[in-house]
Amino acid sequence: MQGIFKFVKSNLRWLSGGLLLTVFSSFGQTFLISTFSGQIRETFELTDGEFGRIYMASTLASALTLVFLGKALDRFSISRVSLFVVLSLALACFGMSKVSSVAMLLIVIYALRLFGQGMMTHTSQTAIGRWYSADRGRAISLTSMGHQIGEALLPSLALVLIANFGWRQTWQVFAFVLAFVAMPSIVWLMRVEHQPVIDLSRPSRTIGLRDWTRPEVTRDWAFWALCLGVLAPAFIGTSVFFHQVRIVEMKGWTPSVFAASFLVLSVTTVVFTLFGGWLVDRFNSQRILPTFLLPLAVACLVLGLSRAPWSIFVFMFLLGCSYGFSSAIFGTIWPETYGTKHLGAIRAIAVAAMVFSSALGPGVTGSCIDRGIGFDFQLYVMAGYCLFAALGMSIVSRHLLARTTS
What we know:
The protein has 19 helices and no strands. It has two domains: 12-199, MFS general substrate transporter like domains (Growth Hormone, Chain: A, Up-down Bundle); 208-406, Growth Hormone, Chain: A (Up-down Bundle). Helix 5 packs across helix 7 (102-131) and helix 14 packs parallel to helix 17. By secondary structure, it is mostly helical. It has helices spanning 2-10, 12-24, 30-33, 37-44, 48-69, 78-98, 102-131, 136-144, 146-165, 167-190, 214-218, 221-242, 244-251, 255-283, 285-288, 294-305, 310-338, 343-370, 375-405. The longest helix has 31 residues, at 375-405.
Protein backbone atom coordinates (compact mmCIF):
# COMPACT_ATOMS: atom_id res chain seq x y z
CA MET A 1 0.00 0.00 0.00
CA GLN A 2 2.87 2.35 0.84
CA GLY A 3 4.33 1.62 -2.58
CA ILE A 4 1.21 2.70 -4.43
CA PHE A 5 0.97 5.97 -2.45
CA LYS A 6 4.60 6.71 -3.28
CA PHE A 7 3.95 5.91 -6.95
CA VAL A 8 0.89 8.20 -7.06
CA LYS A 9 2.75 11.04 -5.34
CA SER A 10 5.70 10.92 -7.74
CA ASN A 11 3.48 10.58 -10.83
CA LEU A 12 0.52 12.71 -9.77
CA ARG A 13 0.65 15.05 -12.77
CA TRP A 14 0.39 12.36 -15.46
CA LEU A 15 -1.95 10.07 -13.56
CA SER A 16 -4.30 13.01 -12.93
CA GLY A 17 -4.33 13.89 -16.63
CA GLY A 18 -5.12 10.32 -17.64
CA LEU A 19 -7.78 10.05 -14.94
CA LEU A 20 -9.51 13.27 -16.01
CA LEU A 21 -9.63 12.09 -19.61
CA THR A 22 -11.46 8.93 -18.57
CA VAL A 23 -13.78 10.76 -16.15
CA PHE A 24 -14.88 13.28 -18.78
CA SER A 25 -15.23 10.58 -21.43
CA SER A 26 -18.49 9.92 -19.55
CA PHE A 27 -20.22 12.62 -21.61
CA GLY A 28 -20.01 10.24 -24.57
CA GLN A 29 -20.73 6.99 -22.72
CA THR A 30 -23.98 5.01 -22.96
CA PHE A 31 -24.69 5.12 -19.21
CA LEU A 32 -24.96 8.94 -19.31
CA ILE A 33 -26.55 9.47 -22.73
CA SER A 34 -29.27 6.92 -21.89
CA THR A 35 -30.28 9.15 -18.95
CA PHE A 36 -31.73 11.52 -21.57
CA SER A 37 -33.37 8.84 -23.73
CA GLY A 38 -36.90 9.57 -22.49
CA GLN A 39 -36.67 13.29 -23.28
CA ILE A 40 -35.03 12.64 -26.65
CA ARG A 41 -37.64 10.07 -27.69
CA GLU A 42 -40.46 12.37 -26.59
CA THR A 43 -39.00 15.40 -28.41
CA PHE A 44 -38.63 13.60 -31.73
CA GLU A 45 -41.53 11.13 -31.28
CA LEU A 46 -39.25 8.09 -31.55
CA THR A 47 -39.99 4.55 -30.42
CA ASP A 48 -37.44 2.62 -28.35
CA GLY A 49 -36.46 0.66 -31.45
CA GLU A 50 -36.07 3.76 -33.63
CA PHE A 51 -33.87 5.51 -31.08
CA GLY A 52 -31.88 2.29 -30.60
CA ARG A 53 -31.17 2.07 -34.33
CA ILE A 54 -30.13 5.73 -34.47
CA TYR A 55 -27.79 5.14 -31.56
CA MET A 56 -26.35 2.00 -33.11
CA ALA A 57 -25.76 3.65 -36.50
CA SER A 58 -24.02 6.66 -34.92
CA THR A 59 -21.83 4.47 -32.74
CA LEU A 60 -20.83 2.20 -35.62
CA ALA A 61 -19.85 5.25 -37.68
CA SER A 62 -17.78 6.56 -34.77
CA ALA A 63 -15.96 3.22 -34.52
CA LEU A 64 -15.02 3.35 -38.21
CA THR A 65 -13.78 6.95 -37.87
CA LEU A 66 -11.74 6.09 -34.79
CA VAL A 67 -9.59 3.67 -36.80
CA PHE A 68 -8.24 6.64 -38.79
CA LEU A 69 -8.45 9.46 -36.24
CA GLY A 70 -6.70 7.40 -33.55
CA LYS A 71 -3.43 7.55 -35.53
CA ALA A 72 -3.13 11.25 -34.64
CA LEU A 73 -1.56 10.22 -31.32
CA ASP A 74 1.47 8.92 -33.23
CA ARG A 75 1.94 12.25 -35.07
CA PHE A 76 1.04 14.93 -32.54
CA SER A 77 1.74 15.51 -28.85
CA ILE A 78 -0.67 14.20 -26.24
CA SER A 79 -1.50 17.74 -25.12
CA ARG A 80 -2.42 18.90 -28.65
CA VAL A 81 -4.59 15.86 -29.27
CA SER A 82 -6.22 16.33 -25.86
CA LEU A 83 -7.02 19.97 -26.67
CA PHE A 84 -8.68 18.98 -29.95
CA VAL A 85 -10.61 16.04 -28.47
CA VAL A 86 -11.94 17.82 -25.36
CA LEU A 87 -13.06 20.88 -27.33
CA SER A 88 -14.71 18.65 -29.94
CA LEU A 89 -16.61 16.82 -27.20
CA ALA A 90 -17.66 20.19 -25.72
CA LEU A 91 -19.03 21.25 -29.12
CA ALA A 92 -20.89 17.93 -29.39
CA CYS A 93 -22.49 18.51 -25.98
CA PHE A 94 -23.53 22.02 -27.03
CA GLY A 95 -24.87 20.56 -30.26
CA MET A 96 -27.05 18.15 -28.27
CA SER A 97 -28.63 21.15 -26.50
CA LYS A 98 -29.59 22.60 -29.90
CA VAL A 99 -30.53 19.42 -31.76
CA SER A 100 -33.61 20.08 -33.89
CA SER A 101 -34.02 17.09 -36.23
CA VAL A 102 -33.40 13.35 -36.40
CA ALA A 103 -30.61 13.93 -38.93
CA MET A 104 -28.89 16.34 -36.55
CA LEU A 105 -29.41 13.86 -33.71
CA LEU A 106 -27.51 11.22 -35.70
CA ILE A 107 -24.58 13.59 -36.20
CA VAL A 108 -24.48 14.78 -32.59
CA ILE A 109 -24.58 11.26 -31.12
CA TYR A 110 -21.86 10.27 -33.61
CA ALA A 111 -19.66 13.11 -32.28
CA LEU A 112 -20.42 12.29 -28.64
CA ARG A 113 -19.48 8.65 -29.15
CA LEU A 114 -16.38 9.38 -31.25
CA PHE A 115 -14.82 12.01 -29.00
CA GLY A 116 -16.22 10.74 -25.67
CA GLN A 117 -16.18 6.96 -25.46
CA GLY A 118 -13.68 6.66 -28.30
CA MET A 119 -10.95 9.32 -28.40
CA MET A 120 -10.95 10.42 -24.73
CA THR A 121 -10.39 6.85 -23.54
CA HIS A 122 -7.98 6.13 -26.41
CA THR A 123 -5.90 9.23 -25.65
CA SER A 124 -5.65 8.39 -21.96
CA GLN A 125 -4.62 4.76 -22.37
CA THR A 126 -2.24 5.45 -25.27
CA ALA A 127 -0.46 8.15 -23.27
CA ILE A 128 -0.14 5.97 -20.16
CA GLY A 129 0.86 2.92 -22.23
CA ARG A 130 3.63 4.93 -23.88
CA TRP A 131 4.84 6.81 -20.80
CA TYR A 132 5.11 3.87 -18.38
CA SER A 133 6.95 0.59 -18.62
CA ALA A 134 7.60 -1.42 -15.45
CA ASP A 135 4.61 0.20 -13.70
CA ARG A 136 2.34 0.29 -16.74
CA GLY A 137 -0.30 -2.01 -15.24
CA ARG A 138 -0.52 0.05 -12.06
CA ALA A 139 -0.76 3.33 -14.00
CA ILE A 140 -3.44 1.99 -16.35
CA SER A 141 -5.45 0.66 -13.40
CA LEU A 142 -5.43 3.99 -11.58
CA THR A 143 -6.38 6.11 -14.60
CA SER A 144 -9.06 3.66 -15.79
CA MET A 145 -10.96 4.22 -12.55
CA GLY A 146 -12.20 7.47 -14.06
CA HIS A 147 -14.89 5.44 -15.79
CA GLN A 148 -16.22 4.20 -12.45
CA ILE A 149 -16.07 7.72 -10.97
CA GLY A 150 -18.14 9.03 -13.87
CA GLU A 151 -20.55 6.09 -13.59
CA ALA A 152 -21.07 6.72 -9.89
CA LEU A 153 -21.54 10.51 -10.01
CA LEU A 154 -22.73 11.83 -13.35
CA PRO A 155 -26.08 10.07 -13.97
CA SER A 156 -27.42 11.28 -10.59
CA LEU A 157 -26.05 14.77 -11.23
CA ALA A 158 -27.68 14.77 -14.67
CA LEU A 159 -31.07 13.89 -13.19
CA VAL A 160 -30.80 16.79 -10.71
CA LEU A 161 -29.86 19.23 -13.49
CA ILE A 162 -32.66 17.99 -15.74
CA ALA A 163 -35.21 18.43 -12.96
CA ASN A 164 -34.06 21.98 -12.23
CA PHE A 165 -33.03 23.35 -15.64
CA GLY A 166 -34.29 21.00 -18.37
CA TRP A 167 -32.49 18.44 -20.52
CA ARG A 168 -31.18 20.85 -23.17
CA GLN A 169 -29.73 23.23 -20.60
CA THR A 170 -28.06 20.28 -18.88
CA TRP A 171 -26.07 19.57 -22.05
CA GLN A 172 -25.04 23.23 -22.09
CA VAL A 173 -23.71 22.81 -18.55
CA PHE A 174 -21.73 19.77 -19.73
CA ALA A 175 -20.29 21.79 -22.63
CA PHE A 176 -19.28 24.61 -20.27
CA VAL A 177 -17.57 22.22 -17.85
CA LEU A 178 -15.64 20.55 -20.67
CA ALA A 179 -14.51 23.81 -22.31
CA PHE A 180 -13.65 25.84 -19.20
CA VAL A 181 -12.76 23.22 -16.55
CA ALA A 182 -11.72 19.95 -18.18
CA MET A 183 -9.85 21.30 -21.22
CA PRO A 184 -7.42 23.72 -19.50
CA SER A 185 -6.78 21.24 -16.67
CA ILE A 186 -6.05 18.29 -18.96
CA VAL A 187 -3.91 20.27 -21.43
CA TRP A 188 -1.84 21.75 -18.58
CA LEU A 189 -1.31 18.34 -16.98
CA MET A 190 -0.41 16.65 -20.28
CA ARG A 191 1.83 19.37 -21.76
CA VAL A 192 4.87 17.91 -19.97
CA GLU A 193 5.29 14.38 -21.29
CA HIS A 194 6.51 11.69 -18.91
CA GLN A 195 9.69 9.84 -19.73
CA PRO A 196 9.59 6.08 -19.01
CA VAL A 197 11.83 5.15 -16.08
CA ILE A 198 13.82 1.95 -16.47
CA ASP A 199 13.81 0.01 -13.22
CA LEU A 200 16.73 -2.42 -13.46
CA SER A 201 15.20 -4.62 -10.75
CA ARG A 202 11.99 -4.91 -12.80
CA PRO A 203 13.16 -4.67 -16.40
CA SER A 204 10.95 -3.05 -19.02
CA ARG A 205 9.01 -5.38 -21.25
CA THR A 206 9.18 -2.96 -24.20
CA ILE A 207 12.88 -2.05 -24.12
CA GLY A 208 14.41 -3.89 -27.05
CA LEU A 209 11.00 -4.94 -28.38
CA ARG A 210 10.52 -4.36 -32.10
CA ASP A 211 8.01 -1.61 -32.90
CA TRP A 212 5.44 -3.08 -35.25
CA THR A 213 3.72 -0.90 -37.84
CA ARG A 214 -0.06 -1.00 -38.15
CA PRO A 215 -0.01 -2.89 -41.51
CA GLU A 216 2.22 -5.52 -39.87
CA VAL A 217 -0.13 -5.80 -36.90
CA THR A 218 -3.21 -6.23 -39.10
CA ARG A 219 -1.50 -9.20 -40.77
CA ASP A 220 -0.82 -10.85 -37.41
CA TRP A 221 -3.48 -13.46 -36.57
CA ALA A 222 -2.82 -13.01 -32.84
CA PHE A 223 -4.00 -9.40 -32.98
CA TRP A 224 -7.40 -10.36 -34.40
CA ALA A 225 -7.70 -13.20 -31.90
CA LEU A 226 -7.08 -10.69 -29.10
CA CYS A 227 -9.77 -8.43 -30.54
CA LEU A 228 -12.27 -11.30 -30.21
CA GLY A 229 -11.59 -11.16 -26.48
CA VAL A 230 -12.06 -7.38 -26.44
CA LEU A 231 -15.55 -7.77 -27.91
CA ALA A 232 -17.14 -9.89 -25.18
CA PRO A 233 -17.28 -7.56 -22.12
CA ALA A 234 -18.47 -4.58 -24.17
CA PHE A 235 -21.11 -6.60 -26.04
CA ILE A 236 -22.49 -8.39 -22.97
CA GLY A 237 -22.36 -5.48 -20.51
CA THR A 238 -24.00 -3.02 -22.90
CA SER A 239 -26.68 -5.53 -23.91
CA VAL A 240 -27.67 -6.27 -20.30
CA PHE A 241 -27.75 -2.56 -19.36
CA PHE A 242 -29.75 -1.67 -22.48
CA HIS A 243 -32.35 -4.38 -21.80
CA GLN A 244 -32.56 -3.88 -18.03
CA VAL A 245 -36.29 -3.05 -18.20
CA ARG A 246 -36.94 -6.26 -20.15
CA ILE A 247 -34.88 -8.29 -17.66
CA VAL A 248 -36.69 -6.79 -14.65
CA GLU A 249 -40.07 -7.62 -16.20
CA MET A 250 -38.96 -11.11 -17.22
CA LYS A 251 -37.58 -11.96 -13.76
CA GLY A 252 -40.39 -10.31 -11.79
CA TRP A 253 -38.08 -7.92 -9.95
CA THR A 254 -38.54 -4.29 -9.00
CA PRO A 255 -36.48 -1.67 -10.90
CA SER A 256 -34.74 -0.69 -7.65
CA VAL A 257 -33.13 -4.13 -7.43
CA PHE A 258 -31.37 -3.66 -10.76
CA ALA A 259 -30.40 -0.07 -9.93
CA ALA A 260 -28.86 -1.12 -6.60
CA SER A 261 -26.68 -3.70 -8.36
CA PHE A 262 -24.68 -0.98 -10.13
CA LEU A 263 -22.94 -0.15 -6.87
CA VAL A 264 -21.64 -3.73 -6.75
CA LEU A 265 -20.39 -3.36 -10.33
CA SER A 266 -18.57 -0.09 -9.63
CA VAL A 267 -16.85 -1.27 -6.45
CA THR A 268 -15.87 -4.64 -7.92
CA THR A 269 -14.51 -3.07 -11.11
CA VAL A 270 -12.31 -0.68 -9.13
CA VAL A 271 -10.96 -3.46 -6.87
CA PHE A 272 -10.20 -5.85 -9.74
CA THR A 273 -8.75 -3.11 -11.94
CA LEU A 274 -6.19 -2.42 -9.21
CA PHE A 275 -5.64 -6.14 -8.59
CA GLY A 276 -5.32 -6.76 -12.33
CA GLY A 277 -2.78 -3.96 -12.63
CA TRP A 278 -0.70 -5.53 -9.86
CA LEU A 279 -0.87 -8.92 -11.61
CA VAL A 280 0.15 -7.37 -14.94
CA ASP A 281 3.18 -5.67 -13.40
CA ARG A 282 4.17 -8.89 -11.61
CA PHE A 283 3.56 -11.47 -14.34
CA ASN A 284 2.75 -9.42 -17.54
CA SER A 285 -0.56 -9.19 -19.38
CA GLN A 286 0.14 -12.09 -21.75
CA ARG A 287 0.34 -14.58 -18.87
CA ILE A 288 -2.97 -13.61 -17.26
CA LEU A 289 -4.79 -13.19 -20.60
CA PRO A 290 -6.72 -16.53 -20.45
CA THR A 291 -8.44 -15.65 -17.15
CA PHE A 292 -10.47 -12.50 -17.73
CA LEU A 293 -13.42 -14.04 -19.62
CA LEU A 294 -14.08 -16.90 -17.17
CA PRO A 295 -15.96 -14.77 -14.58
CA LEU A 296 -18.06 -13.31 -17.41
CA ALA A 297 -19.06 -16.80 -18.61
CA VAL A 298 -20.22 -17.74 -15.10
CA ALA A 299 -22.04 -14.39 -14.78
CA CYS A 300 -24.11 -15.06 -17.91
CA LEU A 301 -25.02 -18.56 -16.71
CA VAL A 302 -26.10 -17.30 -13.27
CA LEU A 303 -28.30 -14.53 -14.71
CA GLY A 304 -29.79 -16.86 -17.31
CA LEU A 305 -30.56 -19.74 -14.92
CA SER A 306 -31.86 -17.90 -11.85
CA ARG A 307 -34.92 -15.75 -11.30
CA ALA A 308 -33.93 -14.81 -7.74
CA PRO A 309 -33.02 -11.14 -7.14
CA TRP A 310 -29.58 -12.11 -5.79
CA SER A 311 -28.58 -13.28 -9.27
CA ILE A 312 -28.23 -9.73 -10.61
CA PHE A 313 -25.84 -8.88 -7.77
CA VAL A 314 -23.76 -11.98 -8.52
CA PHE A 315 -23.84 -11.08 -12.22
CA MET A 316 -22.62 -7.53 -11.52
CA PHE A 317 -19.87 -8.81 -9.21
CA LEU A 318 -18.57 -11.24 -11.83
CA LEU A 319 -18.97 -8.65 -14.62
CA GLY A 320 -16.90 -6.26 -12.49
CA CYS A 321 -14.18 -8.92 -12.20
CA SER A 322 -14.00 -9.21 -15.99
CA TYR A 323 -14.24 -5.45 -16.51
CA GLY A 324 -11.41 -4.86 -14.05
CA PHE A 325 -9.09 -7.52 -15.44
CA SER A 326 -9.80 -6.51 -19.06
CA SER A 327 -9.04 -2.82 -18.29
CA ALA A 328 -5.64 -3.78 -16.91
CA ILE A 329 -4.86 -6.34 -19.62
CA PHE A 330 -5.93 -4.38 -22.67
CA GLY A 331 -4.36 -1.18 -21.41
CA THR A 332 -0.96 -2.92 -21.38
CA ILE A 333 -0.94 -5.83 -23.82
CA TRP A 334 -0.59 -3.72 -26.97
CA PRO A 335 2.69 -2.00 -26.00
CA GLU A 336 3.97 -5.23 -24.44
CA THR A 337 3.32 -7.09 -27.68
CA TYR A 338 3.80 -4.54 -30.46
CA GLY A 339 5.96 -1.75 -28.99
CA THR A 340 5.12 1.91 -28.42
CA LYS A 341 6.18 3.80 -31.57
CA HIS A 342 2.90 3.17 -33.44
CA LEU A 343 0.79 2.54 -30.35
CA GLY A 344 -1.85 5.14 -31.23
CA ALA A 345 -2.60 3.59 -34.62
CA ILE A 346 -2.62 0.04 -33.21
CA ARG A 347 -4.80 0.80 -30.20
CA ALA A 348 -7.22 2.72 -32.42
CA ILE A 349 -8.24 -0.53 -34.12
CA ALA A 350 -8.73 -2.31 -30.79
CA VAL A 351 -10.76 0.56 -29.31
CA ALA A 352 -12.82 0.76 -32.51
CA ALA A 353 -13.57 -2.96 -32.15
CA MET A 354 -14.75 -2.35 -28.59
CA VAL A 355 -16.94 0.58 -29.64
CA PHE A 356 -18.31 -1.49 -32.54
CA SER A 357 -19.16 -4.30 -30.13
CA SER A 358 -20.92 -1.95 -27.70
CA ALA A 359 -23.00 -0.63 -30.60
CA LEU A 360 -23.83 -4.07 -31.98
CA GLY A 361 -24.97 -5.60 -28.68
CA PRO A 362 -28.29 -3.80 -28.15
CA GLY A 363 -29.24 -4.07 -31.82
CA VAL A 364 -28.50 -7.78 -32.19
CA THR A 365 -30.04 -8.85 -28.88
CA GLY A 366 -33.07 -6.62 -29.43
CA SER A 367 -33.67 -8.13 -32.86
CA CYS A 368 -33.42 -11.63 -31.36
CA ILE A 369 -36.02 -10.71 -28.72
CA ASP A 370 -38.34 -9.41 -31.47
CA ARG A 371 -37.97 -12.78 -33.20
CA GLY A 372 -38.97 -14.69 -30.09
CA ILE A 373 -35.48 -15.68 -28.90
CA GLY A 374 -35.57 -15.20 -25.13
CA PHE A 375 -32.88 -13.19 -23.40
CA ASP A 376 -32.12 -16.08 -21.03
CA PHE A 377 -31.23 -18.27 -24.02
CA GLN A 378 -29.09 -15.46 -25.42
CA LEU A 379 -27.21 -15.34 -22.11
CA TYR A 380 -26.38 -19.06 -22.48
CA VAL A 381 -24.99 -18.33 -25.96
CA MET A 382 -22.93 -15.44 -24.53
CA ALA A 383 -21.56 -17.77 -21.83
CA GLY A 384 -20.58 -20.28 -24.50
CA TYR A 385 -18.84 -17.56 -26.50
CA CYS A 386 -16.86 -16.49 -23.43
CA LEU A 387 -15.67 -20.05 -22.79
CA PHE A 388 -14.72 -20.50 -26.44
CA ALA A 389 -12.91 -17.14 -26.47
CA ALA A 390 -11.11 -17.99 -23.19
CA LEU A 391 -9.76 -21.14 -24.85
CA GLY A 392 -8.64 -18.97 -27.75
CA MET A 393 -6.96 -16.53 -25.35
CA SER A 394 -5.05 -19.44 -23.81
CA ILE A 395 -3.69 -20.39 -27.24
CA VAL A 396 -2.80 -16.77 -28.02
CA SER A 397 -1.12 -16.38 -24.64
CA ARG A 398 1.22 -19.32 -25.25
CA HIS A 399 1.97 -18.04 -28.76
CA LEU A 400 2.81 -14.50 -27.60
CA LEU A 401 4.98 -15.71 -24.70
CA ALA A 402 6.89 -18.02 -27.04
CA ARG A 403 7.34 -15.21 -29.55
CA THR A 404 8.52 -12.74 -26.90
CA THR A 405 11.13 -15.10 -25.46
CA SER A 406 12.39 -16.40 -28.78
